[in-house]
Design a protein that fits this description.
Layout (H helix, E strand, L loop, with lengths): L2 H31 L1 E8 L6 H20 L7 E8 L4 H14 L4 E3 L4 H14 L3 E2 L16 E2 L5 H16 L4 E6 L2 H16 L6 E5 L7 H8 L5 E5 L2 H13 L5 E4 L5 H8 L7 E4 L11 H13 L7 H19 L6 H11 L1 E4 L2 E4 L12 E6 L3 E5 L6
Helix pairs in contact: 2-10, 2-11, 3-4, 5-6, 7-8, 8-9, 10-11
């Protein structure tokens, strides 16, 4: 073959490759134009995995329901989820990848205070909405953060309800705390101390454990010495379950009170009959009573449609509600959809009505719900909603 023919063939091959790339790219852009991507970094593995998986399942159930109805003017909602194992460094890595490489529209359903603390500065700097993190940490609410869209009530509200009920319903004054030794646990600790101070009380003992471990025996022994009437707990389900089991084995018999983040369903399974009488505060309605809540009825239907084998629970209900909040804001954007018009729409709407639930947002107010509910565990992993605490 002469040199000119070789050159001509080379040019043709190059043009053909360019043409293939253009076609591939145009198809890719078209596909992405039909999808709105949300990013999630959460504990999908490790000792806190039930929380991340539950949030993910609830969000996906809400999105599948919406997509089946036609989505947002034909655009479908999808989630790109990465496991961070409930570790801040991995959450940072995942967040950067989701924003820079995956080009997600918003972050959604993150799990945990230490991970939220690590990624919030990145999200705010990049001006990416962060919808429904599974944490009640005060720093996500005060001072106000425009790019964080909280759905649930705060830990301060939960701990205030604890102390009010313990002191008013039972007259309990000797209260100890077990907490996770990080930003999450200390957020709960500060809430408890704040609530006690209002009533001229102080903690009789404190015990802590390291995140992603179940090393709680020393905390049990330390707290036992103070002879508390109640032990309030700000931790994850495995260490909290271990604490309760060990405490009962050595004859401790206080009232155990857990925060919503513990993961009620997972805690119940971990404890079995040892969970009888354990109190857990909640920030979403009772997920097992569709006859009492339109939201719960819709959630149950959507979760069954998403995956018939899944159990109903508090975490996936919260995930479903988070997904519905994101959908409701999207539906009300009147201008071209951007991250800023999305947030502008939220704060212009002020009230977001989802079935029989109303979430309120406003000037310098990025928290939707303020409700706190109490539940008690009974033999056989059954939950019961309670309005007040009574002596067991």
């Amino acid at each position: 073959m002469v040199e000119s023919d070789k050159n001509s063939l080379s040019v043709l091959c190059t043009l053909f490759l360019i043409f293939i790339c253009i076609i591939t790219l145009s198809c890719r852009v078209k596909a992405e134009d039909d999808i709105i991507y949300f990013g999630q970094t959460a504990a999908l593995g490790g000792p806190a995995k039930a929380l991340g998986i539950g949030m993910n399942e609830g969000i996906l159930a809400a999105f599948k329901e919406f997509n089946a109805q036609g989505g947002l003017n034909g655009k479908k909602l999808k989630v790109i989820a990465y496991d961070d194992g409930y570790e801040p460094d991995r959450a940072i890595e995942n967040t950067k990848k989701l924003i820079k490489e995956d080009n997600v529209f918003a972050m959604i359903g993150g799990v945990g205070t230490p991970t939220a603390s690590a990624i919030e500065p990145i999200i705010s700097e990049e001006k990416v909405p962060f919808i429904g993190p599974f944490t009640g940490a005060e720093f996500l609410r005060n001072p106000y953060k425009r790019y964080v869209v909280n759905v649930r009530g705060s830990y301060w509200q939960e701990t205030e309800e604890w102390i009010e009920r313990l002191t008013a319903d039972l007259g309990i004054k000797r209260i100890a705390i077990l907490y996770q030794d990080d930003s999450y646990g200390r957020a709960g600790l500060s809430g408890v101390e704040r609530a006690l101070e209002k009533r001229n009380l102080k903690l009789v003992a404190e015990g802590a454990y390291k995140r992603n471990t179940t090393a709680v025996k020393s905390a049990v022994l330390k707290i036992r010495k103070a002879k508390p009437e109640a032990v309030v707990m700000v931790g994850a389900y495995k260490p909290c379950a271990e604490f309760i089991r060990v405490a009962k084995k050595i004859g401790m018999d206080p009232l155990f009170v857990n925060i919503s983040f513990v993961g009620s369903d997972a805690l119940s399974k971990e404890l079995g009959d040892d969970g009888d009488g354990v109190i857990i505060s909640q920030v979403v309605p009772f997920p097992f009573s569709p006859e009492k809540s339109k939201l719960v009825a819709s959630y149950q239907k959507a979760l069954v449609n998403y995956s018939p084998d899944l159990d109903f629970g508090f975490v996936s209900l919260e995930g479903y509600l988070v997904g519905r909040v994101a959908i409701e804001i999207l539906k009300n954007v009147k201008e071209n959809l951007t991250r800023e018009t999305f947030l502008n729409t939220l704060y212009e709407m002020k009230d977001i009505v989802i079935e029989d639930i109303i979430l309120h947002y406003g000037d310098e107010d990025n928290q939707g719900l303020d409700d706190v509910f109490l539940t008690i565990l009974k033999h056989g992993n059954a939950f019961k909603h309670i309005d007040k605490i009574v002596q067991q």
